[in-house]
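// run 5 | inverse folding | seed 20
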């Protein structure tokens, strides 16, 4: 199996509950439409839970697609009459859609260089969306520190499954961000499962490495760090996903 093809599997290990504890919700109205649309476009739901997003609450569903992020993004733009999910050569794209009292945040994540895509669909009522409009003050998740000088955009937590993620931006190169987290996490006792490419990576990407994604393991914990320049010189978007196995 190719290294890039393994990334989706490794990432799913991080986000899918280590114990099957995610809450499953009844679907109706607009929320049913979102699920049907994702499935019609070829998505397979791999995760579902109620989460806190900044100061508001919402429902998170994650879908896996066996198609490129560009193709999936184009289809989602047409289905939800929105924009922002295509047009840039990047591993991640965002859009916000309003649907009859429900606000849908869509995050499209390319993990397999054109072969596999994850879509995060976060649904909130209009009132909960308003509550979560202000960015979080703290960009740390699971004890993983924010990159110095970064600005957190949004942060989500699922207390029932021990999964959390945060998206931030910083005026720095993606390579510097990757090197910071690689050095920091290894020093804190994390083992590298997938190594990101940094300025210190030898010529010829070493086996088991990924240009943007770093995946790290500890007993009972998984951490994914995705750092990629956001279409502007040395402006990097950072996504950190942290999963802790809960002991009941």
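// decoded
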């Amino acid at each position: 199996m190719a290294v890039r093809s393994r990334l989706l599997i490794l990432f799913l290990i991080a986000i899918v509950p280590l114990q099957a504890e995610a809450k499953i919700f009844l679907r109706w109205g607009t929320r049913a439409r979102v699920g049907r649309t994702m499935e019609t476009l070829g998505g397979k739901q791999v995760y579902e839970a109620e989460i806190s997003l900044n100061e508001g609450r919402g429902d998170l569903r994650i879908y896996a697609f066996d198609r490129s992020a560009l193709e999936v993004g184009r289809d989602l733009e047409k289905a939800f009459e929105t924009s922002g999910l295509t047009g840039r050569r990047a591993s991640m794209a965002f859009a916000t859609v309003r649907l009859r009292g429900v606000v849908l945040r869509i995050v499209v994540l390319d993990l397999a260089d054109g072969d596999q895509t994850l879509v995060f669909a976060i649904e909130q009522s209009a009132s909960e969306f308003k509550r979560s409009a202000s960015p979080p003050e703290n960009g740390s998740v699971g004890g993983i520190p924010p990159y110095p000088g970064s600005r957190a955009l949004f942060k989500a937590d699922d207390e029932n499954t021990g999964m959390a993620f945060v998206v931030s931006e910083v005026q720095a190169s993606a390579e510097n961000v990757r090197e910071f987290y690689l050095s920091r996490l290894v020093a804190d006792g994390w083992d590298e499962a997938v190594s990101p490419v940094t300025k210190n990576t030898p010529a010829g990407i070493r086996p088991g490495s990924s240009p943007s994604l770093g995946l790290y393991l500890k007993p009972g914990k998984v951490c994914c760090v995705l750092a990629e320049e956001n279409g502007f010189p040395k402006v990097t978007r950072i996504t950190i996903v942290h999963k802790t196995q809960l002991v009941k």
